[in-house]
Amino acid sequence: MLAAIRPDGWNLPLFLHVFGAMVLVGGLLVTSASVAVARGDVRLLRIGYLTLLSVCLPGYLVMRVGAEWIYSREQLADATDDPAWVGIGYITADAGALLLLIALVLGGIGLRRQRGGSGAGMLRASLVMSVVLLAAYVVTVWAMGAKPV
Amino acid sequence: MGLNNWLLALHLLSAFALVGAIVLFWVVVVVVRRTDRPEQVASAARLLPVGSVAVVVGSLGVVVFGVWLAISLDGVKVWDGWVIAAIVLWAIATEAGRRSDTEFAPCVARANELVAAGQTGSDPQLAELARTSRGLVLHTVATVATLLIVVDMIWKPGA
Which of residues 37-56 of B touch A (CB under 8 A)? Predict the structure, then answer.
């Protein structure tokens, strides 16, 4: 039961938003698990980074496009003040985009260097950032459901 | 914040945990199917316990909090068509996922056995076990059923 009954025109943008968010959070679960269980295993760090690139990034883009679309449909933009849950969504989406970008660049450099035998530290740092992102998005999902204020 | 808000939040978080587990299992399936080297399979398989916890928490949470919410909300009944459809799809996804896990288990066991024996080269039996089409089909069924639950939850046909 993702929400109460709503106008039909809201369903597709909401689906895109939720689907993208689920893919994003799913990818972040993989990246966080990779760095948590790697214990020096560079293969797992590579799996984590490639998941960040091929799952989290597309998931983020779909989530963000869906978010703007549903935001305009719900005409929340016309309101004087956004509800707190919308504010939380925007803050974590925008700050999350920056952190995701930094993690992707850092991990990409780490992956390149790793071919020469170094770079594992950068890969690990990139995936640690994804743990922060996962924590932020868990709070955001809670806020989207609970809608505090 | 009322009880229904909390139930919806917990229902949603459970759904994210369930989909997260499905994504994690897909990553492992893709990695395992692209290699015949035991260490690579064993490395990817180390992610599985995290997926197992997420799938149990997600599967149980989504149905418990979902049914509770359906009972608690005034405009929704547990016997509404779209709610029953979601429960049926949940049962299909859960069983397909469980069977898919059983299909891939011998591959992981073989990889761990080879790694323990110090064999690092490619292994044809491992490759065969990793490319189980039955396991792939079952995991696809679980994924599609879960995706249909999300569609059902949003469009709520018949509501």
Answer: 39-40, 43-44, 46-47, 49-51, 54
Domain boundaries, chain B: 3-155
User: How far is A23 from chain B, CA to nearest CA, in Å?
Assistant: 7
What ipTM goes with this model? 0.94
Backbone angles phi, psi at A58, to 5 degrees: -60, -40
Q: Does residue A40 contact residue B43 with C-beta atoms inside 8 Å?
A: no
Residue A76 confidence class, pLDDT cut points 50, 70, 90: low
Provide, as residue numbers in chain B, all residues whose Cβ is less than 8 Å from the Cβ of A34.
47
Q: Give the number of beta-carbon pairs within 8 Å between A and B.
A: 121
Q: Out of B8, B47, B49, name the one closest to residue A30 (CB).
A: B47
CB B132 within 8 A of CB B107: yes
Q: What is the pTM of this model?
A: 0.93
How does residue A92 score in pLDDT terms, banded at 50, 70 and 90?
Answer: very high
Residue B156, by phi and psi: left (phi above 0), alpha (psi -120 to 50) or beta? left
The two three-digit tokens of residue B78, written as one number = 């547990």
